[in-house]
C-alpha cells in the first residue's frame, strides 16, 4: 500500500496489481489489499497498461476500420485506375493507408474493466490488439509522466520577463537572490529554488557569474545515482585493514538477503568469521530503523556482553547500514561496537559472509516469497544451516558457537543444534 494516504502507488504496489490481475481479481479486491480506492486501481491499470499486436495477427485484421460496413468513400486516389464501387474494395491500393477518416476498430471489451486481456475467454484466438499490465513498464510510464509534469517553465512569458527584469536590476545593486525573494516573494510567480533551476536551463537571460555566491561554491560530489557521497572517514575498508589482527579476527560481517522484488521483508545476516557461524534475523523492512531495532534486540539478548561479542562490524554500503552512529550506539547511549564499510562494488571484502549465503540459498532459493516467512521459519533455517558440517572445519558451526556466544542470544533467536542426520538443506525444510 502507499506509504501514506494520498501518496502515489509504488513499484511494490504495481507488482501486487500485476499478480492479482493475472489471478482474475477484481478492482475492489485489489483495492482492499492495497488499502486504496477502487478508482485508483482502475485509473492505474487503464493509464499504464501496454497494448501489443498478436504475432500472428493477419494484415486484414490490423487494418480493420470501425466504419467499414457503412463506408462509401470513392476517389481517394487522384487518378483512380480501379473500377471498384468503393475504395474499400479496391485491389490496387489499401484504403486504410490513404484515408484520413480511418478509425482503427478496437475491442469494446478491452475498454471496460479490467481493461486487460489476461482473463478474457477469447484471448487465444482474438485478432484485436491485446492489453496487459506489466509492473515495470507501468512504473516507467508513471515516472515519465511525473518528470514531464515538472519540466518546462511554469509561468507566463510576461510574468517571466517582468521577474527577470526586476531581479537583474536588484542584482546589479549587489543584492543576493535570497534578499530579493525576502522582499518581493509575493510579486514573483516562482520560488527562489525554481529561479535557480530556470537559470541552469538557460531561460532567464542570466549567467551564474552574476551570482557571486554560486560561483564561489563548487558543486557537491555525487554518486552516479545522484546521492551525495557520505563521509566514511575512519570507517573504510582500508581503516579496517589497519586494525590489530585480534580485532580483525573478532569481526562480525553483516549483510541483508532479499527475496522477491516486491517483498518488504528481508533477512539480516551476522557472520562470525572466527566461528564460521552466521545468525539470521527476519526484518519487516530493509531500512535503517529495522536494522537498528534488530541490533538493539541482539544487545538485550547478549545481557551486557554485546561489546565483547560484536567488537567490530564490517558491512557493505547499502542504505540500511549507512547510519553508523545508530549502529554503534547502544541502548544506554554508549558506544557498543565499531562499524566499517567495504569499498563500493567489492562484496569479496566480506567474502566469508557472502559464501555462507550459498548455504542459506539452498533452503531459501532466489524467487522465494520472503513476506510469507515467519520468525520461526528463519530460526529453523538458521539452526539447520549452522548444524550442517563443512569440509575442513572439524565441527559444525553451532557447536563452536554454543561454547563461545551467550546462551541467551541463541535461545532468544530460536537457534538450536540439529543432529547431523536430521539436517535438511532444501526448501522442503519450510514446506516451500
Automatic annotation (TrEMBL):
A GO cellular-component term linked to this record: cytosol
Superkingdom, taxonomy of origin: Bacteria
Pfam families: HTH_38
Record-level Gene Ontology MF annotations: transposase activity
A GO biological process held by the record: transposition
Domain Integrase catalytic: 240-405
PANTHER family: TRANSPOSASE, TRANSPOSASE INSI FOR INSERTION SEQUENCE ELEMENT IS30A-RELATED
Protein name per Swiss-Prot or TrEMBL: Integrase catalytic domain-containing protein
Organism, scientific name: Enteroscipio rubneri
Amino acid at each position: 500500500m502507499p506509504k501514506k494516504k494520498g501518496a502515489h502507488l509504488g513499484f511494490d504496489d504495481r507488482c501486487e496489481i500485476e499478480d492479482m490481475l493475472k489471478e482474475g481479481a477484481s478492482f475492489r479486491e485489489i483495492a482492499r489489499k492495497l488499502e486504496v480506492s477502487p478508482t485508483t486501481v482502475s485509473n492505474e491499470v487503464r493509464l499504464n497498461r501496454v497494448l501489443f499486436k498478436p504475432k500472428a495477427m493477419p494484415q486484414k485484421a490490423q487494418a480493420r476500420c470501425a466504419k467499414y460496413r457503412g463506408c462509401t468513400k470513392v476517389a481517394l486516389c487522384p487518378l483512380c485506375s480501379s473500377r471498384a464501387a468503393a475504395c474499400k474494395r479496391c485491389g490496387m491500393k489499401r484504403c486504410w493507408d490513404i484515408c484520413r477518416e480511418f478509425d482503427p476498430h478496437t475491442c469494446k471489451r478491452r475498454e471496460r474493466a479490467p481493461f486487460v486481456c489476461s482473463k478474457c475467454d477469447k484471448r487465444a484466438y482474438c485478432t484485436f490488439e491485446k492489453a496487459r499490465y506489466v509492473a515495470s513498464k507501468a512504473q516507467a510510464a508513471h515516472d515519465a509522466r511525473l518528470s514531464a509534469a515538472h519540466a518546462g517553465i511554469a509561468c507566463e512569458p510576461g510574468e517571466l520577463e517582468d521577474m527577470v527584469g526586476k531581479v537583474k536590476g536588484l542584482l546589479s545593486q549587489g543584492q543576493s537572490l535570497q534578499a530579493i525573494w525576502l522582499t518581493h516573494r509575493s510579486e514573483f510567480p516562482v520560488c527562489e529554488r525554481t529561479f535557480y533551476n530556470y537559470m541552469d536551463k538557460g531561460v532567464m537571460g542570466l549567467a551564474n557569474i552574476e551570482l557571486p555566491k554560486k560561483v564561489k561554491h563548487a558543486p557537491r560530489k555525487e554518486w552516479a545515482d545522484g546521492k551525495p557521497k557520505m563521509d566514511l572517514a575512519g570507517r573504510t575498508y582500508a581503516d579496517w585493514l589497519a586494525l590489530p589482527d585480534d580485532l580483525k579476527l573478532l569481526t562480525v560481517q553483516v549483510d541483508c538477503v532479499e527475496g522477491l522484488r516486491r517483498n518488504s521483508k528481508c533477512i539480516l545476516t551476522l557472520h562470525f568469521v572466527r566461528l564460521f557461524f552466521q545468525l539470521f534475523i527476519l526484518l519487516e523492512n530493509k531500512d535503517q530503523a529495522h536494522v537498528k531495532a534488530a541490533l538493539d534486540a541482539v544487545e538485550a539478548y547478549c545481557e551486557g556482553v554485546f561489546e565483547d561479542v560484536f567488537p567490530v562490524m564490517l558491512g557493505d554500503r547499502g542504505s540500511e547500514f549507512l547510519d553508523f552512529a545508530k549502529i554503534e550506539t547502544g541502548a544506554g547511549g554508549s558506544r557498543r561496537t565499531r562499524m566499517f564499510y567495504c569499498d563500493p562494488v567489492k562484496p569479496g571484502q566480506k567474502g566469508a559472509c557472502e559464501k555462507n549465503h550459498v548455504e542459506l540459498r539452498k533452503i531459501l532459493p532466489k524467487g522465494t516469497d520472503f513476506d510469507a516467512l515467519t520468525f520461526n521459519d528463519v530460526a529453523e533455517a538458521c539452526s539447520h544451516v549452522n548444524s550442517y558440517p563443512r569440509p575442513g572445519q572439524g565441527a559444525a558451526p553451532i557447536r563452536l558457537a554454543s561454547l563461545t556466544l551467550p546462551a541467551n542470544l541463541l535461545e532468544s533467536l530460536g537457534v538450536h543444534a540439529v543432529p547431523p542426520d536430521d539436517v535438511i538443506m532444501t526448501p522442503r525444510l519450510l514446506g516451500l
